């Protein structure tokens, strides 16, 4: 009897999860806030015209939100004692929080108490890609905002130092597969990174901490170029383009770099260690299948955006993204 009850409980949980995902749809605000996408895009156009390098960080922020507690806006919450997700080391290099708050304020002015911060962030990420000459997709909406944000839970984020096994495990935890991994990794085609996210590949690959302790999988000329920018293992301030030459443009050049062993992170290089992801990289390194990649990226972003959302009566609609309602 107990086992039957457990089976029923598990079935109901699965049905509830399916229903929650089903509640997200592109026209969720068609009556309650029909102008929301126009409001977000207006702010995005204004921001990226002044600071086009902001596109990468805004895309990354949505990614970091969805991998921890699902896409619930928890990465945006402040904490008085510095124990929120944004205070954890993986999120300390995120930027654009003030801009997200500005967009949310504009949305609140148009439609008070209607659109969640999680949805605002999903729309911002889509427009960051599209305005960088990447694909456009209809964003399923209807997420609610969570009220919990715990720094230790950022262990769920795929680190730039991860190998293929770790990456696939962390992606699988949010229902993303190997194809999603290689497709979403190409988000590195826009934006920059601090040297400390990859400098161990240049100076401390095996723990020796000397100039000859390098990652042998890095292409030598690219490695020397990185060393000229990142002078030491202790460089905590220098920024490097993740996709040199076109880091403000969403394109397939990322795959060209990875195929030549010029991926910036361990995680980029790890895509060459698996037959499926290596084949995907090599196919799109040709640049001949841009439309196919754009469609794949849009599909994977929608899939990621469906990661355990709060919907219906769950959560809340925060008036400000950095604090819960009181």
List low-confidence stretches: 1-22
The count of domains is 2
User: CATH superfamily membership of the largest domain, which one?
Assistant: Peroxidase, domain 2
CATH topology of the largest domain: Peroxidase, domain 2
The description of the largest β-sheet is: 2 strands, antiparallel
CATH class of the largest domain: Mainly Alpha
The number of helical elements comes to 13
Q: Overall 3D geometry?
A: globular
Q: Would you tell me the overall average pLDDT?
A: 92
Tell me the distance between the termini: 43 Å
What fraction, in percent, of the residue positions are helical? 40-55%
Relevant terms:
326 residues, mainly alpha, Peroxidase, domain 1, Peroxidase, domain 2, 2 domains
Descriptive report:
Disulfide bonds join 33-111, 66-71, 117-321, 195-230. This is Peroxidase. It is found in: Secreted. The active site is at residue 64. It is an enzyme of class 1 (oxidoreductase). With 326 residues, this protein is mostly helical. It has two domains: 24-156, Orthogonal Bundle (Peroxidase, domain 1), CATH 1.10.520.10; 164-305, Peroxidase, domain 2 (Orthogonal Bundle). It is 44% helix and 2% strand. The protein has 13 helices and two strands. The chain has helices spanning 2-22, 36-50, 55-66, 97-110, 117-130, 164-172, 178-185, 200-203, 220-229, 253-259, 266-269, 275-285, 290-305, and strands at residues 192-194, 239-241. The chain has a two-stranded antiparallel ribbon. Helix 7 runs parallel beside helix 12 (275-285). The radius of gyration is 20 Å and the shape is globular. It starts with a helix and ends in a 21-residue tail after the last helix.
